[in-house]
Design goal:
It is globular and about 110 Å long. The two termini are about 25 Å apart. About 60% of the residues lie in helices and about 5% in strands. The strands form six sheets. A two-stranded antiparallel sheet has the order 1-2. A two-stranded antiparallel ribbon has the order 3-4. The chain is mainly α and about 725 residues long. Keywords: Antiport, Cell membrane, Glycoprotein, Membrane, Mitochondrion, Mitochondrion outer membrane, Phosphoprotein, Transmembrane, Transmembrane helix, Transport.
Length: about 725
């Protein structure tokens, strides 16, 4: 008996049909069929052409964005003339900080609408370190005082003898300067609290330079509006500092996770049954230790001051270590782990017989992976292509968002009919605006434009997001159909592994690109459309958070739920459709229909076998992530005495711990995804094998003897009486 997957061989007498005659009925044996892998043609050619056109258009959009874009607009702050502060090769090269003439005006609601303070902003070499008014500096007998003050005036201001009233009227210098500190390259008032009283220096009030005393709280309000993400930036800087001192330990943790995953997979290849039970016991023990540790921490905090404060009363804190000093935190952790432990134990009790069957399927998958060891490294190829998609999307998005031109608008303190209109700084002083509105200024507002390119920037951004989803899903689909084709060649080899192709993984990859690019593009296009709709709904939900329309919120929540379910269903259907494409070479719609009805005819087997193996793989990932996570927790919290002095000092030790946990999960998921795809492929092929063959000498099963010994027992054995009636 030779494999139907090999070319240049005579047609085998006992193989399966290449297409489904009737989607709702089992398959019929066809002795004239000549092999499903090599006798195939290109599928869904129209979708392939559409993908190529879309990629060409995407490249054009990227080139145009890179031509017009300027990422410096994101990096450097911009003064009132649209010039970058601190940019090399410009007059502001040695002036990296942005200074606000009157930061109190930043408290205006206009800031949130235009993202620009209605006050003059200039680039300075350093932030002011003293409190001073222009009147006091002008009246000082020391020339150095006025010279110091002049560095906070507009660059064109040279006439130090000019009357102060004229200087302030022309807005050439700020009325006063106050002690400031740089934050995100912007000068903010050095405000501090002393015994609950907000102060600048040692004063609670200040002279605004125009003869009025004002409260320091006005400065605070202006500073908050000038940078609405002030606290977020501080948190981000601390997190960045933690990464700079712990990045190599994070890499070591991820390497440990990778080695542990690889060893686990290798052991699974030779000791599948033992490893599954060891994995189950280890998961239970790890969760048990977590419950014990949470109880010990809960008991240790009993009687300590402040440990009985509730999480609700404490509120949100950026320093998460505060929560670890609360008994309620450890009680919540303990309850969650207890629930997970009980659920897992109950599932193991009720599924104990099915786990034996799932282990048989995993053993068969281990043999398949053992014959195609390169499949363990194939996720790296998928990961690399996904990184390219993400990098291209991110860079294009940045260049598109920074490809606007500087737009200037009229800003004023009093009512003015020209307020908010665009203006030109070169001709503003000679226009009628200054005559009708004496206090009006022509300041840089934002980056925009009036050309057709600028008007359709939002459309280009939408196209950028859509293409990212399409290409990312295409890359994932390519990986799935490649692995499915390789593992299918193992299953349908009658003499394993003699009848397998020499390089099954590379052969499958070549077939997928040569014949089925259109089908993969079709499936990923449908999924991308649903995902874009979900993103749009999330955006609308974010915009409607402040609205009081309860019906709109309810309708939006229903739509989000429906499209979430639709996305999950399409992912499931696509995955099985790609397996059918890899085996039969049919187009996407036919493959999706055949896969769906095949699974529906074997719905009990799907629930019993496929999902139980998914549960076991989840336990494997949980074991690796939990073990590495516990190790990272003890290391970064300096609880391992042997390496206590080696752990780096951190602002938030949860930063590297969470990074290691998330990274470990992604690594473990990458390794187990190969096994998952192998099990899904073998399971679908097993269902096909049952429908096409009956195990007789004329129509033998293609499954291995070890697999048939367990899978064909009891309820899983197909009804021969039904076959005889058919």
């Amino acid at each position: 008996m030779r494999s139907p997957f090999l070319p240049s061989q005579p047609s085998p007498k006992l193989v399966f049909h290449s297409f489904i005659v009737s989607a709702g009925t089992p398959q019929k044996y066809d002795p004239t069929f000549k092999g499903p892998i090599y006798d195939r043609g290109c599928t869904d050619i129209i979708c392939c052409i559409l993908l190529v056109i879309a990629i060409v258009g995407y490249v054009v959009v990227g080139v145009v964005a890179w031509t017009h874009g300027d990422p410096r607009k994101v990096i450097y702050p911009t003064d009132s003339r649209g010039q970058f502060c601190g940019q090399q090769g410009t007059p502001n090269e040695k002036k990296p900080f942005l200074f606000y003439f009157d930061i109190v005006k930043c408290a205006s609601p206009l800031v949130l609408l235009e993202f620009q303070c209605p006050t003059t902003q200039i680039c300075v070499s350093k932030c002011p370190d003293r409190y001073q008014t222009y009147l006091s500096a002008y009246g000082s007998r020391t020339p150095s005082e006025l010279e110091y003050y002049r560095q906070f005036c507009v660059p064109e201001f040279k006439n130090l003898q000019k009357a102060p009233i004229e200087v302030l009227k022309d807005k050439e210098c700020p009325a006063m300067i106050i002690p400031s500190t740089p934050l995100a390259r912007r000068c903010f008032p050095a405000i501090r609290a002393k015994k609950g009283v907000i102060m600048v220096g040692n004063e609670t009030t200040y002279d605004d330079g125009r003869g009025r005393r004002r409260n320091v709280t006005e400065l605070l309000e202006g500073a908050k509006k000038a940078n609405v993400v002030l606290e977020t930036r501080q948190l981000a800087m601390k997190i960045f500092e933690d990464y700079t001192v712990s990045w190599y330990w994070i890499i070591i943790g991820l390497v440990i996770a990778m080695v542990a995953s690889f060893i686990f997979i290798v052991l699974l290849r030779f000791l599948a049954g033992i490893m599954v039970w060891v994995m189950i016991v280890m998961v239970i023990l790890v969760l048990g230790y977590g419950i014990f540790h949470c109880y010990m921490e809960y008991a240790k905090l009993k009687g300590e001051a402040g440990s009985d404060v509730s999480l609700k009363d404490l509120g949100f804190q950026t320093d998460l270590r505060v929560y670890l000093h609360l008994r309620q935190t450890w009680l919540a952790f303990m309850i969650i782990l207890c629930i997970v432990e009980v659920v897992i134990i109950l599932l193991l009790i009720f599924l104990r017989k099915r786990i034996l069957i799932a282990i048989a399927l995993i053993k068969e998958a281990s043999r398949a992976v053992g014959h195609i060891m390169m499949s363990l490294l194939f996720p790296l190829c998928t990961f690399f292509l996904l990184c390219l998609c993400i990098a291209y999307w991110a860079s294009t998005a940045v260049f598109l968002s920074t490809s606007n031109e500087a737009i200037y608008k009229v800003f004023n303190e009093s009512a003015c009919q020209f307020s908010g209109q665009t203006c030109k700084p070169e001709t503003f002083n000679t226009s009628n605006v200054t005559k009708l509105c004496p206090d009006a200024q022509c300041l840089f507002a934002f980056y925009g434009g009036e050309t057709a390119y600028h008007k359709y920037l939002i459309v280009l951004q939408f196209f950028n997001v859509f293409m990212f989803f399409w290409l990312a899903n295409f890359v994932i689909a390519l990986g799935q159909v490649t692995l499915a084709g390789a593992f299918a060649s193992y299953y349908w080899a009658f003499k394993k592994p003699d009848d397998m192709p020499a390089f099954p993984l590379f052969s499958s990859f070549g077939r997928a690109l040569r014949y089925h690019t259109g089908s993969l593009a079709f499936g990923s296009l449908i999924l991308a459309i649903v995902q874009v709709i979900r993103v749009t709904l999330e955006y609308l939900d974010h915009r409607l958070k402040a609205a009081d329309n309860k019906f709109a919120k309810f309708l939006l929540s229903c739509l989000k739920c429906c499209f979430w379910c639709l996305e999950k269903f399409i992912k499931f259907l696509n995955r099985n459709a790609y397996i059918m494409i890899a085996v039969y070479g049919t187009n996407f719609c036919t493959s999706a229909r055949n896969a769906f009805f095949l699974l529906m005819r074997n719905i009990i087997r799907v629930a019993v076998l496929d999902k139980v193996t998914d549960f076991l793989f989840f336990l494997g990932k949980l074991l690796i992530v939990g073990s590495v996570g516990i190790l990272a927790f003890f290391f970064f919290t300096q609880r391992i005495k042997l390496v206590q002095d080696t752990a780096p000092p951190l602002n938030y030790y949860w930063v590297p711990i969470l990074t290691v946990i998330v990274g470990s999960y992604l690594i473990a998921h990458g390794f187990f995804s190969v096994y998952g795809m192998c099990v899904d492929t073998l399971f679908l092929c097993f269902c096909e094998d049952l429908e096409r063959n009956d195990g007789s000498p004329e129509r033998p099963y293609y499954m291995s003897p070890e697999l048939s010994e367990i899978l064909l027992k009891g309820n899983l054995e197909p009804s021969k009486s039904a076959d005889s009636q058919g």
